[in-house]
Amino acid sequence: MKLSPVRYAAPTSVEEAVALLATCDAKIISGGQSLMPIMAFRLASPELLVDLKKIKGLGDIVLDSEGLHLGAKVKWIEIETDVRLKTAHPLLTKAIEHVAHYQIRNRGTVGGSLAHADPASEMPAIAACCDAVISVVGSGGLRKINAADFFVGALQTRLEPDEIIVKILLPPWPATRRWGFQEFSRRRGDFALAGIAAYFDVEPDGRATNAHIAVFGASDYQRRLTGAEAELNGKKPTADTFAAAARAAAAEVDPPSDIHAPADYRRALVETLTGRALADANR
Ligand SMILES: Cc1cc2nc3c(=O)[nH]c(=O)nc-3n(C[C@H](O)[C@H](O)[C@H](O)COP(=O)(O)OP(=O)(O)OC[C@H]3O[C@@H](n4cnc5c(N)ncnc54)[C@H](O)[C@@H]3O)c2cc1C
């Protein structure tokens, strides 16, 4: 299908973009990789597209003592090719390898993915796993929203209609941190049927601490699996501990059934992928 007629604006500041969002049924467009297909199917027919492309300062990747700041317009390809990030945030770079195909990674953006909130997307999983903070600007000014509060359902977030994501902050990543990322999709580049992002630290006595395990694809939104994390914290990171955490993860999810996979299959994937991600982390 063709798109419904739509007006287009390319403001040069966030404030101007926010003001435009309040004028009518308007939508931000960033990479267009999710919005354009949705509009082509007429699942959305906004009156106005507000393009972020001329707004400066939303495309920065900054590493400082607060952690890793990714501007909303940062593209997947820019994360993939920034050599600093391979050591500064290896969990992120591993996850982004799994996002879609080259052409889509060349246009799709961090802000678009967070706002779209597809339950099978990798970036929201990293945000949830790493306790990221998402900065948004609207007519009420700047708000900082913890990832744990930001995602509320499939394709649903706490973003208000006149708010724009400006950046996400991932807290500092210690070099000694152990991490694993596993997803299963039918073909490379497809959305995941299920996936797990995980990390933990190790105390001087060899026990795991600070376990963070997040699910995507097998839940209505990306979230941490606190029951699975509890099986890991304070224990030696052994195969038995990982198996217990994996069982807890599977018990904790309530996956959807759809044309791609039934719920039971996705639950089994969560157990397998949690076990594998933790084993990878222990290498
Ligand atoms: C064939 C195909 C396969 C894909 N596979 C994957 C995959 O495996 N994993 C994955 O994660 N993604 C996948 N994607 C989606 C892709 O990563 C998108 O790029 C991403 O989800 C959206 O980013 P975008 O910049 O294109 O956003 P857009 O399409 O421009 O926008 C998406 C939504 O976010 C809103 N929005 C955009 N930017 C902002 C902002 N800064 N503030 C507030 N709202 C904003 C828009 O209004 C719109 O509602 C796939 C896409 C396609 C077409």
Structural description of this entry:
- This protein is an alpha+beta fold and 283 residues long.
- The chain folds into three domains: 45 residues, Uridine Diphospho-n-acetylenolpyruvylglucosamine Reductase, domain 2, CATH 3.30.43.10; 110 residues, Uridine Diphospho-n-acetylenolpyruvylglucosamine Reductase, domain 3, CATH 3.30.465; 104 residues, Enolase-like, domain 1, CATH 3.30.390.50.
- The chain is built from twelve helices and 14 strands.
- It has a five-stranded antiparallel β-sheet.
- Helix 10 packs antiparallel against helix 11 and helix 11 packs antiparallel against helix 12.
- The longest helix is centred in the C-terminal third of the chain and has 19 residues.
- The chain is globular.
- It starts with 6 loop residues before the first strand and ends with a helix.
- The model has no long low-confidence stretch (mean pLDDT 97).
- Bound molecules: flavin-adenine dinucleotide (FAD).
- The site of flavin-adenine dinucleotide has 29 residues, from strand 2, helix 2, helix 7, helix 8 and strand 10.
- Flavin-adenine dinucleotide binds next to strand 2, helix 2, helix 7, helix 8 and strand 10.
Task: Name the features.
Uridine Diphospho-n-acetylenolpyruvylglucosamine Reductase, domain 3; Enolase-like, domain 1; 34% helix; 14 strands; binds flavin-adenine dinucleotide; Uridine Diphospho-n-acetylenolpyruvylglucosamine Reductase, domain 2; alpha+beta; 283 residues; globular; 5-stranded antiparallel sheet
Helices and strands, with pairings:
Elements: E1 7-9, H1 14-21, E2 26-29, H2 35-40, E3 48-51, E4 61-64, E5 67-71, H3 76-81, H4 83-88, H5 90-97, H6 102-105, H7 110-116, H8 122-129, E6 133-138, E7 141-146, H9 147-150, E8 151-153, E9 156-157, E10 164-170, E11 178-184, E12 194-202, E13 208-216, E14 223-224, H10 226-232, H11 239-252, H12 263-281
Parallel strand pairs: 1-3, 2-3
Antiparallel strand pairs: 4-5, 5-10, 6-7, 6-10, 8-9, 11-12, 12-13, 13-14
The chain binds flavin-adenine dinucleotide.
